């Protein structure tokens, strides 16, 4: 039950971070947009041309968020879930990670992003790639893999605490 509550809190926090940022400035999240939309933005001169999908700032921002996730979740799992072994810390954190990842893919990406005109970047509004469900599902699968090292770290920290 605690994992479900923690997952809901994580979903709420994730939503509070993502939606206002994307609505205020879609370019802040353009690295997460489908490739054809990013390329069109570069062609239109809306963003600088680059070879890499994410800028150093994007990577730094995501890295800090990941580190915060690891440390905060390790403490929460230790205090509220009684996770006192590597396995319990890893298992609970990965379950929470998966729930948030699937919420992101299904609700935020496939429902909200794919259908909201408010996230469309001027000059790209009519692109079919905004409704590229396959892209979002693929990104979710990558997210599932990226969660493994983060949650392994949570497990280690949980065991150490």
Keywords:
Nitroreductase, transmembrane, 161 residues, mainly alpha
Describe the 3D structure.
By secondary structure, this protein is mainly alpha-helical. The chain contains five helices and no strands.
Summarize the structure.
With 161 residues, the protein is mainly alpha-helical.
Number of helices: 5
SSE order, one letter for each helix or strand: HHHHH
Distance between the terminal alpha carbons, to the nearest Å? 22 Å
Mean pLDDT: 91
| pLDDT < 50 stretches | none
The total of beta strands comes to 0
Spatial extent as radius of gyration: 17 Å
Binned strand content:
under 5%
Global geometry:
elongated
Largest sheet: none
Transmembrane segments: 6-23, 59-82, 94-114, 141-160
Keywords: Membrane, Transmembrane, Transmembrane helix
Protein name: Nitroreductase
């Amino acid at each position: 039950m605690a994992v479900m509550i923690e997952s809901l809190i994580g979903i709420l926090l994730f939503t509070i971070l993502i939606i206002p940022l994307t609505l205020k400035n879609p370019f802040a999240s353009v690295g997460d947009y489908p490739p054809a939309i990013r390329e069109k933005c570069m062609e239109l001169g809306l963003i600088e041309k680059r070879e890499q999908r994410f800028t150093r700032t994007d990577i730094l921002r995501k890295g800090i968020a990941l580190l915060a996730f690891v440390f905060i979740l390790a403490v929460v799992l230790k205090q509220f879930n009684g996770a006192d072994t590597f396995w319990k810390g890893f298992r609970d954190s990965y379950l929470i990670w998966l729930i948030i990842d699937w919420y992101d893919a299904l609700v935020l990406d496939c429902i909200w992003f794919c259908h909201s005109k408010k996230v469309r970047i001027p000059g790209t509004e009519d692109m079919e790639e905004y409704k590229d469900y396959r892209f979002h599902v693929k990104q979710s699968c990558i997210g599932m893999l990226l969660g493994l090292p983060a949650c392994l770290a949570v497990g280690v920290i949980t065991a150490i605490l």
